[in-house]
Every structure is written in structure tokens, then in C-alpha cells.
Amino acid sequence: MGLNRTDEFRADAVHIALTSGLTRKQVADDLGVGVSTLNKWITLHRDTDVVSKEDLDLARENERLRREVRLLKEEREILKRPPSSLRA
């Protein structure tokens, strides 16, 4: 049988999952809960004041910037290759 977590613990877990930039699996593992449990808590608390609109906006912007940086790094690695390695 699973542990009953306090409402405060759940709220903190949701806040971390939505604003930390970590994957939900990483957050769930760090907190010792299942990913499906964490996802359930996020669904239940998404529209509450656990996470402010500003926090969510910042988290979305951080994720967008991480994707952009990842793409730019991949492009840079391609451009660093010698021309002969680009031919098929």
C-alpha cells in the first residue's frame, strides 16, 4: 500500500515539476513517487494557485530556450565537421 502524502507535499511536487526544468521522471524519482502519481497531482493542481502564471510563463520560456540551444549546438557540430564527412 502506498504512502499518503500531505497536500503540502503534493503542492510542492507540482511546483517543482512545473518550474524546475527537470523531466517529470526525474522529479518523481527524486521525490520517491511514481511518474503516474506525479502526473495525476499535476492534473489536479494545474488550475490552482500552486504555481503562479508568472512561474508557468518562465518555465515555458526556459523550455523553449533549452530546445533552441540544443538545436543550435547540433547545427554547430554539423558545421564543425570537415566537408568530406558531410558527403554520403
Automatic annotation (TrEMBL):
Keyword terms of this UniProt record: Coiled coil
Domain of life, source organism: Bacteria
Segments forming a coiled coil: 55-82
Gene Ontology molecular function, alphabetical: DNA binding; transposase activity
Keyword field contains Cell inner membrane: no
Protein name (database record): Transposase
InterPro entries hit by this protein: Homeodomain-like_sf, Transposase_8
Keyword Endoplasmic reticulum: no
GO terms (BP aspect): DNA transposition
One of the Pfam families matching this protein, by short name: HTH_Tnp_1
